[in-house]
Amino acid sequence: MPVRRKNDRRADTKHLEPMTHAAPQLIATREQTPVRVVPPAAPMDLPAAERAARDLLSALGADVSRAGLEDTPRRVAEAYAELLTPAAFNATTFANDEAYDELVLVRDIPFHSLCMHHLLPFQGVAHVGYLPGERILGLSKLGRVVDLFARDLQVQERLTTQVATWLEQRLAPRGVGVVVEADHTCMSLRGVQKPGSRTVTSALRGAIRDDPRTRQEFLALTGMAR
Predict the structure, then answer these.
(1) Does 125 reside within a domain?
(2) Number of H helices, E strands in the chain
(3) pLDDT of residue 226
(4) Which ranges in 92-155 belong to alpha helices (H)?
(5) In terms of Cα–Cα distance, which of 221, 181, 186, 206 is closest to 16?
């Protein structure tokens, strides 16, 4: 749910960190100028993936010629291709004509990703917020940015920082906050086998990190404050 609040508070923006994901720079003009964000194209060889899935099933003792398994290698290859392909989108921004200087927050953005260590899914929600500078971002784009990085072989810590860095570098806000909560099947279905456990990661930048009142407000709005 989007949350917007207003007061009179200003803060400096933290120095930007090096770019961690290839994407175009937003153009800061008064007129709306959408920028097409196209994820870097990773080469996918579906026939090779299908052969590999067939070999894996055979190595695990499955008879891939039996009814129900003949087409499984193809389905597996196509499923992983879908899970690892984020959608391109227009990063639509607008001039901050009203000089809005309080938090913009979208909570409970659902996502799913793949653990890069076990190729098992993890899924949960992301809470993404920022303190606007001269530009504001279309609210739906916050969800798009989460998917941009979630549809990859990931660890949750990197996913969290990638979303924060993208917003910091593309939007030049006065602060960015990202909190990610997720359930990891690599922890619930195997190994330690602790279903119901939830992993929480955060990335706070600029005034959301450095200003105690803003930090507390952000954490309270995301439900993280205790």
Answers:
(1) yes
(2) 7, 10
(3) 64
(4) 139-150
(5) 206
Residue 39's pLDDT is: 80
More confident residue, 18 or 71: 71
Parent domain of 111: 2-37+91-221
Encoding tokens for residue 206?
């600029």
Dihedral over Cα of 116, 45, 43, 77: its sign: negative
Place of tokens 């003792």: 61
For residue 83 the two structure tokens come to 């899970």
What's the burial of 197, exposed, middle or buried (CB within 10 Å: 0-12/13-18/19+)? exposed
| Angle at 117 (CA atoms; ends 85, 189), nearest 5 degrees | 100
Let me know: does 183 contact 145? Beta carbons within 8 Å. no
Q: Are residues 109 and 15 in the same domain?
A: yes
pLDDT tens-digit map of 107-163? 999 999 999 999 999 999 999 999 999 999 999 999 999 999 999 999 999 999 999
